[in-house]
Design goal:
heterodimer; A: mainly alpha; 14 helices; 77% helix; B: mainly alpha; globular
Chain lengths: 319, 320
Amino acid sequence: MLSFLVRRVLLGAVVMWVVATAVFIMYFVTPNDPARLLAGKQATSATIAAIRAHLGLNRPIIDQYGSYLWRLLQGNLGYSYVNSEPVITIVRQDLTVTVSLAVGGAILWFVIGVLAGILAAIKPRSVADRAVTGFALTFYSMPTFLLGLLLLLVFFYRLHLAGFTFFPAGGYVGLSQSVGGWARHLILPWVTLALVSAAVYARLTRASMLDVLGEDYVRTARAKGLSERRVIFRHALRAAITPMVTQFGIDLGTLLGGVIVTETVFGLPGLGQQIVNSITQEDLPVIIGIVLLASAFVVAANIIVDALYALLDPRVRLT
Amino acid sequence: MITSGKTTAEVLGTEAEEAPEGELAQAIQGRSPWQLAFDRLRHDRVAIGASVVIVLIAAMAVFAPLAAAITGHGPDAQNVPPTGLPLAPSLKYPLGTDELGRDLLVRIFYGARVSLLVGVVAAAVAAAGGAVLGIVAGYFGGIVDTLLARVFDVVLAMPYLVFAIALFTALNGQGGITLDIAVIAFFSFGAVARIVRGQVLSIKEKEYIEAARSVGSSSLRIMFFDIAPNVAAQVIVYFSLLVPSSIIFEATLAFLGIGVQPPTPDWGSMLSDSVQYYQVAWWYVVFPGVALLGTTLAFNLLGDSVRDALDPRYNRMLRG
């Protein structure tokens, strides 16, 4: 287990290095001038030169690259061009929103997906199966932002007109302020995030369950008189769920993409909203910080998922 | 297999009544796996329905100028409503307008161009690139394989949307559709490459590869004449499923305001603009949304059918 973890962490470190380098190349090697961005449109060339010197942009590129990496290793993401706040501070405020959205959405996504897949697999070709398959294909084909917009149109706007004002149009209420308000503001975003990805899991679970339900040990479990519920949840699901866990790890990058889009649609002040705003303001350090943080999140989550996979399925060799 | 059996029987039945023995033997001819797959596809009602939808959307893209000519306003022709709000569907504007008074019908027709172009080209580049790299990695093995496999891992582990956003901002919105295609293909080829590599690892141990080597075929020839045809079915299946996901990717980028820039009509950016007006103009959300969802759904249905046709075992496994 230990050597496996070491290997995975090393690979993770390589991924992070590649991402950091790619971002560096994108912003500091391409014909982009951060000093001009920082100085604003009215600045004189003397001001720009001064800023360039201050940022160390007139040093050799390899030198800048070295200090950039060194800075990152110390956990320093730099300062915003717009308000000079440390990027870490800005990002920390947004992180709670993003984590609330991502974790809730991911749980809902996994649970809906797996349960729907089981429902479909228990009676292949039944009405339930066809319904699940049809819904899965529709949601799978649905871009996240379109689903979000349609949910807003139906659950916020139409229901408001009908006098039912449970769902807000967007915005965010902190968990510490009001648990109910927090959940109420996040339901539609959670569902948006969950349904699109759940569709893939419903299909995967269905295929995997059908495969497992044909195995001898499932027949044995039934033959010795176990209840159907026990056979499905204790015997079949345990074996069928492992591919889903791997897929879940692979899809965390997708989850993050979904989070960005969902935040934009519902006006949630999280990392996604922040990066979109930073793009309009050309606030490079914040953009870079979020890209790095997001990558680190995906890399770390991948390692955890791989370890989890090994715990679920003892046959997996951790070499 | 079942389909082919039935067809043969039909051929036998009809031919046997009138045709002499000699022609009967001719009627039973060997059919390649590709012919069998095409035959399965031809008898798949879902595949035919999906193909019809795709052809219609392609026709929209091709005949967009015709729609502009018939309605009398081009995709960028503005007619700003006095209220500053989108106009509801009417005889003049069958699907309504956006907030600038541009005809949604015409813009949806033109939007099909971007979606189809980016979706198909990006998927083709990703599938072809992934196939080539996967074959190279699997065939050569050793250090080449280790390096390439790591590259696939790294690309798959990147949070692609965040990365795409960063890249587009770094380039200040230059690049347009070409950059769109490049970015989407770059983040999609890894999955194809991984699958192909796995298949090549087992194919290259087969006797016919050894036979090819023993008659002096070069590595290049073995890779692309002996191995490639055997992974082609998988690559085609992947290609057909990558098209809808590339279309979604493109629309998402446009929704976030990167990639295709205004005033180019694009379904993603239309939906992005509609966010501010969905409460007063349902048509602004619904029609571009239907166009986008209809396209991706049709491609996904066709992709599923293509997979069933090329790999009947997969289907049997799924049906239980």
